[in-house]
Automatic annotation (TrEMBL):
Topological type in the membrane: Multi-pass membrane protein
Protein name: Tetracycline resistance MFS efflux pump
Coiled coil: none
Family in the record: Belongs to the major facilitator superfamily. TCR/Tet family.
Protein role: Resistance to tetracycline by an active tetracycline efflux. This is an energy-dependent process that decreases the accumulation of the antibiotic in whole cells. This protein functions as a metal-tetracycline/H(+) antiporter.
Transmembrane segments annotated in the record for this chain: 42-63, 75-98, 104-121, 133-155, 161-181, 216-237, 249-268, 280-298, 304-325, 337-363, 369-392
Originating organism: [Roseibacterium] beibuensis
Keywords: Membrane, Transmembrane, Transmembrane helix, Transport
């Protein structure tokens, strides 16, 4: 593997760690700084996750457009440097407000994964981009392996210890990038920075003008809101339903990350070669819907371990759908497109934690009409089914229009 690609994979891994690192320690950390119970901690956890995602939503198009103007290298290195400093701040956080401030900055710095996708688009041909995007998604999977592992194992020592480790990793990656990362966007292919396009609304409007892109963006949003139920609710669900501790939560999330990395790093290309991008998305959405229903109904903790490798197969959807979307954008729009997709991902990270933690709160509150910790997964299954119906509708309209062309 070329060293620049390795740097990109480590970068997106650290971006993902920004999410996964805090998950196993979130209930205990919030309980420590706020003195609350589990279901109340879940509400604050939703707020912290939403704050992180709001920053990604707002800044991903800006950073993507900056990389289209000034190049990928400076954007990636500066953002990673700020991330290292921010982890130090979160390691020292003694109040919920300082922790919230840290998550806000972390959300801005982690928005660089749009630039990472753009870098890969720069160095690959359109027909092989889905494979490259799958490789980056595998890097995210690795982040969901090491993040929860660090959070679970080091969190048993101190809830802040994982952030110290993450700060060291980010700083080392900056040094690594200074030596190995070239610029992938020649000056001749750069374009003027325009604030009207460097925001979520402007970016969506610009990308929405490309043929067939707007309905596909709706599919991506519904899919991501649904799929984010796993990091949003996992720690609260497993602790509330099965009594798992931070180490067990971290281990299970790491196992899910391993399974996702195997799928996205090793299985995406064979699946795409056999099924094609459209059928890979269709069957992936069907599989995801069934798995979410199964998680909603699980009654024993051991069943989770049986479901993890099956549900991870659905991770093929994102790179396949990104491959379809990437074909619609020009060489000087890849950063902008990936910024828009990152904004949609961030929007899902705003909506999903708030929706799923609220569902968990109302389904597990004391004196409530029902006690159903798996209720958030049922809600996610409905959203995943909506994504599937939207995608099938797009394909049906395309099939009807083709003979008339």
């Amino acid at each position: 593997m070329r060293l620049p690609v390795l740097f990109i994979l480590v970068t997106v891994m650290l971006d993902a760690m920004g999410i996964g690192l805090i998950l196993p320690v979130m209930p205990d950390l919030i309980a420590e700084v706020r003195g609350t119970g589990l279901n109340d901690a879940a509400l604050w956890g939703g707020i912290l996750s939403a704050a992180y995602a709001i920053m990604q939503f707002g800044f991903a198009p800006t950073i993507g457009n900056l990389s289209d103007r000034f190049g990928r290298r400076p954007v990636l290195l500066v953002s990673m440097s700020v991330m290292a400093l921010d982890y130090v701040v979160m390691a020292l956080a003694g109040s919920i407000w300082l922790l919230l401030a840290g998550r806000i900055v972390a959300g801005i710095t982690a928005a660089t994964h749009s630039t990472a996708f753009a870098f890969m688009a720069d160095i690959t041909e359109p027909e092989t981009r889905a494979k490259s995007f799958g490789l980056i998604s595998a890097g995210f999977g690795m982040g969901f392996i090491f993040g929860p592992l660090l959070g679970g194992l080091l969190g048993d020592l101190d809830p802040r210890a994982p952030f110290v480790a993450a700060a060291l990793l980010a700083a080392l990656n900056v040094v690594f990038g200074l030596f190995v990362l070239p610029e992938s966007l020649p000056r001749a292919r750069r374009r003027r920075f325009d604030w009207r396009r460097a925001n979520p609304a402007g970016g969506l409007m610009q990308m929405g003008q490309l043929p067939g892109v707007r309905p596909l963006l709706a599919v991506m949003l519904a899919y991501q809101v649904s799929n984010f139920v796993y990091p949003a609710i996992w720690a609260y669900w497993t602790q509330g339903a099965f009594g798992w501790d931070a180490a067990m939560v971290g281990t299970s999330l790491a196992a899910y990350g391993v399974a996702m990395a195997i799928v996205q790093g090793g299985l995406v290309q064979p699946v795409l070669r056999r099924l094609g991008e459209v059928r890979a998305v269709t069957w992936g959405l069907i599989l995801n819907t069934g798995c979410l229903v199964a998680y909603a109904l699980i009654g024993q903790g051991w069943m989770i371990w049986a479901m993890i490798p099956i549900s991870a197969l659905g991770a093929m959807v994102a790179p396949a759908l990104q491959g379809v979307l990437s074909r619609a954008a020009g060489a000087d729009q890849q950063g902008e497109l990936q910024g828009v997709l990152a904004s949609l991902s961030a929007l899902s990270m705003i909506l999903s934690p708030l929706m799923m933690t609220q569902a968990f709160f109302w389904a597990t509150r004391e004196g409530g009409a029902i006690w159903w910790p798996g209720a958030p997964f049922a809600l996610a299954a409905l959203l995943m089914a909506l994504s599937l119906l939207l995608f099938l509708g797009i394909q049906a309209r395309a099939a009807t229009a083709t003979p008339a062309e």
